[in-house]
Amino acid sequence: MNNGKSSFGNLLLGYDDFDTINSQQIQNKATTMLNGTLFGEENQPKIRIIDSKGHERQDQTDFQNASKLISLLRQHPSHTALIYVLEIKHLVSENPLNEFRLKFYKSTFKDFLKNTIFVISKWSFHKNHTDQRAKENIDENEVHKKLQKLLEAVGFENPNPTVYFIDSFYDPNDFIQRGMFNSGFESFWQHVSKMNATNILEDDQNVRDSLQKYKITHKTYQEDHLQIREDYEQMIKNREEIIKKEKE
Hints:
Blueprint: H1 5-13, E1 31-37, E2 46-52, H2 61-75, E3 78-79, E4 82-86, H3 97-108, H4 112-115, E5 116-120, H5 127-135, H6 140-153, E6 162-165, H7 175-194, E7 198-199, H8 204-247
Parallel strand pairs: 4-5, 5-6
Antiparallel strand pairs: 1-2, 3-7
């Protein structure tokens, strides 16, 4: 899912190191950890970022990505925040993999919503984009409602997620875009700075159980998806044979 996670990580680091082009092809780099300073500037605070790839694949790679993320977190369990980056279009997606991953996070991480900051990426403040969102009646309040609905669907009761709207692709030559980025990012970073580093993983048994459930869920989904595709292909084949016989 190319929703801007790696781009946001690169933005925080101040240089491009996380893969943003082949993120779905390079599985041996599916989860990457980098250390640096905010924006790569010497006088800024030190940061450590773990970039985990997305979860809209129709195969088992999403489980592989998740298990690699857990492996890295076990080696470095203390972190300040989970930053969940997504696009508005994925809040209305009917792809069940979105819910699968959130259910996994819910059972794997302690106080998931308390320790998580949601960032809506690619929230452009270019006039054409703001006008288009206005036509579609999509504003920050509407996005918050859609996210609440998704979280409720995976079992959170009365969720009130922390959400920031930050465009990693803003144009610094555009006064409005630069100003909105600076304002949004400043609020985001102030929030992060007030959070305390903690071990965000549940106990080992819960993590093992969560990984196993997630693996089985993905395997079942993959098999069901394959069966649906085979049934569809057979239906098309049968239809073509009927048409062929009618022409004879």
